[in-house]
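Section 5: illustrative case.
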């Protein structure tokens, strides 16, 4: 029986959370940017 904890589970989980959060932030920023550009273009047409 092994009593030491395996740190790789936590390392992998930290990378998954970090990469997932980064991708979510990039997607959110892209959608917000496209929305702002659309509003800007509509305001220029008036």
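Designed sequence:
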């Amino acid at each position: 029986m092994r009593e030491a904890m395996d740190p790789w589970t936590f390392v992998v989980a930290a990378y998954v959370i970090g990469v997932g959060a980064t991708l979510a932030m990039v997607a959110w920023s892209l959608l917000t940017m496209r929305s702002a550009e659309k509003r800007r273009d509509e305001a220029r047409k008036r």
